[in-house]
Description:
Elements lengths: L2 H15 L5 H4 L1 H8 L3 H24 L6 H22 L3 H16 L2 H10 L7 H28 L2 H8 L1 H13 L19 H4 L2 H35 L4 H14 L1 H14 L1 H22 L4 H16 L2 H11 L5 H30 L5 H26 L7 E2 L2 E2 L2
Antiparallel strand pairs: 1-2
Amino acid sequence: MKPWQIISVMCAAHVFSMAGFATFPALLPTLVPLWQLSNTQAGWISGIFFAGYVAAVPLLVTLTDRVDSRRIYLVGLLISTVGLLGFAFAATGFWSAMIWQAVQGAGIGGTYMTGLRMLTDRLPGTVPSRAIAFYTGAFSVGTAMSFVLSGEIASRLDWQTAFGLAALGPIIAAAITLILLAAQRPDLEHRPDTHLLDFRPVFRNRQAMAFTLGYAGHSWELMALRGWIVAFLVFAGATQAGTGLLSATLIAGAANLLAVPASIIGNEFAERFGRRRTILAVMILASVAALATGFSASVSLTAAVLFVIIYSGFVMGDSASLTAGAAAAAAPGYRGATLAVHSILGFSGALIGPLVVGLALDMAGGQQSPLAWIFAFAAMGFGSVAGAAALWQLDRSPGATHRTAAGRGG
Length: 410
């Protein structure tokens, strides 16, 4: 297959694999009153998804250094399907929702970075950063699709059906990869000489860790935004008598879709002006946009929608650059292990971010308080601040270099 065909296949499979990714956040305004959840409990359900992700990644992604990544990818799709069907038929409240959300997260843990490994292993060159930019952009396309379809289906049928039909996504992704991508033998020449879960070579790679810790802050912010965006838009619409659940999920989907070019453009800026410099600039702008978005609901619904879209763009602006930087900095034979650590630490941030936002809402007056939403978005923006600080400190240390195969350093 030609490179553009491989990229297209993997991006399509990635979009379908994420059909249930945003189903719970999209239906949060429905499920919170139905199950009488506090904002903190809702944050836990959103966050536990990423606990499942983090639990699955060390084994599943690291295995891609030793076996064909397609096999691991198919296992992840199976887990995702089970989690979505379990939520549809067995979730009845806080604890059962926690269980099935964690299973879904484990499934995404077996598909996101393993899919990236499938892509890069099948393309010529060292680490094709533009291919990574398109692949990470497909993450936002999948998220947008999940928001929109979940909201549409739930508004016409019910929330159980929304989760059940989302399970078709991973099944379609499995069919795409089985039919269109051939199996591939692992690279035995660069096979790791350490045991499977020995991540010490990765932690000693200071440049890779700089991008990884920056990614942790990015994921905190991104997943907190995606976890609470619909609830925020419903609040803004209720305040201004303008929007309900369906239109809120459509706006959330549009915001995620419009963020796709931001990821690709951000990577192009990183190639031209330096990866570290570009990422730091984007993170600073994102933290400022977070505060502006928190204030926007008190101005007008139009302002809230506009700033949500702007903020989504800034949050996604460094996504591809961070992952491409970590992958390019990986030592030979340790790309899978490096991506595993990248995901573990990154999605640990994703676990904490939605929970902290829920806590901020509860402590500052709840979802109906304009002041509470200002604190909530400040909590989101903290992810960019922390990520920028970690990248600045670690990547400028004596052990770090500033040039990678995927682009220039800052």
